[in-house]
Amino acid sequence: MRNALFLYMAALAAGSPTAIVSDSSAAAATVDSTVFYSLLATATAAVTPNAAPIFPVSGNATEVVGIDASSVASAISSAVTAPATPSVDDVEGKTSSTSTKKTTSTSSYGNCKTKTSTKVITTAAPTSTVPASSTTSPYCSVPSSCTPVSWTNTNSYTSTTACPTAIEVGTYCGFINPLDPCAPQSAGSAPSPTADTVSAFLSNKAYQVLASQAATPPGYIPTFTDLDAAVSANTYLGYETLTSYDTASCAALCDATDLCTGFNIYIERDPGWNPDQCSCAEPASTYNFKCSIFAGGVYASSATNVGQYRDEYEVVITASNGYMLGNTTYAASSTTTNSDVEDDSDGLSTRDSDSSSPCLPDGASRPQSCWGKTHNHPDTTIKEAFFPGPFSIDTCISLATSQSELNLAADVNVTAAFVNAALVVRDGVAWGTYCGVFTQAYDGSECNWSPSSSSGHHWSVQDSWGVEIDVEVLLGA
């Protein structure tokens, strides 16, 4: 099992775009782990966090929250293609279809957050009437001298009696496409610094006060404070723009979103209009409060997004705070700040005890934390897989259920009784979910292996959970 995990890590470092799978019968399961250390050493192509996780976020191009459920189902389907059994033939009970320890089916097991369905923010439907005029424009002002350069408008338009002018298809009265050259951007709510420069923005004491005095929402633990960078990780679920530096609102967004276990709130310096192909390439700035949410991995070591250039305009970030739910891993001894972030080589540590349990579906029970370890039991392993993207115990349960269903359909009397779900972390940055599927249940005290440094990278697992499952309940038998 540990060898397969190194294989997943090697393939992930090489930029594998899909689920990485190993059946226990594969020859690689018996290869010494040093082989996979060497694979890591030669895997030089790095995956960029947030670039294209296997569970892409849903929504429009501005603010999105949630994951595409169909991509999860597709990933599970591609991972389960043939019957699978443990690789060792003489292990007692390996073909048992039930756990050797009692499994109790529980509805919404553990400390479940109250949620509605996953929130997806989409463009509003066309309005039936002309909106009332407002004395305050929601957009930044653009000088009339600013015009598009070498640009042809290829957008499709339609007319409606409700709107005084033609509108872009699929939009509404008054809609302005923010991607058009010179298009005004939404006006931010953050206060302006003393001068419209990068240095004035980053040194603004008012922003530092907001970050340092921000309240920690109930149930969350601060992981870093007042950094000049935002979190970038494959566990990204989406973001919203806020009207104030409000950690409670950001936490509420996380609480209402499936899989979310942490958030990052920060202030961003943005252009007042789109400078791309615009004759005015250095726009006046607007300043936004932003809240991004994640399924794990909100650590100081993951705060690597320092901004970007949009044409000649420099986007930068400050007052960045990170928070994780109390039952997850966090940067423990002291909250990381701008002054000590460079001394934090890993940014991670684990708590001494678990404060709550994850929410589980019917047919799953007895969640036990492994913290920085995984379960390594080759004699009872029937499936292992890695899914880049948000950390999800449910994905591992679905993997186990699908494999068991396929086995039974093929008259192979081997079904899952236990899963191990762990968040894989490379150099302090979260990458995705590792799943191990077993025919026997285990206690938390039997978590027995963890990765380490290899080929210049530090590998670890966080938020690792062992969960007993009842396949009959999960299959609805």
Automatic annotation (TrEMBL):
Coiled-coil intervals: none
Region (Disordered), start-end ranges: 84-108, 333-373
PANTHER family: APPLE DOMAIN-CONTAINING PROTEIN (PTHR36578:SF1), CHROMOSOME 15, WHOLE GENOME SHOTGUN SEQUENCE (PTHR36578)
Keyword presence, Cytoplasm: no
Lineage: Eukaryota, Fungi, Dikarya, Ascomycota, Pezizomycotina
Endpoints of the signal sequence: 1-15
Keywords carried by this UniProt record: Signal
The protein's name: Apple domain-containing protein
Keyword Signal: yes
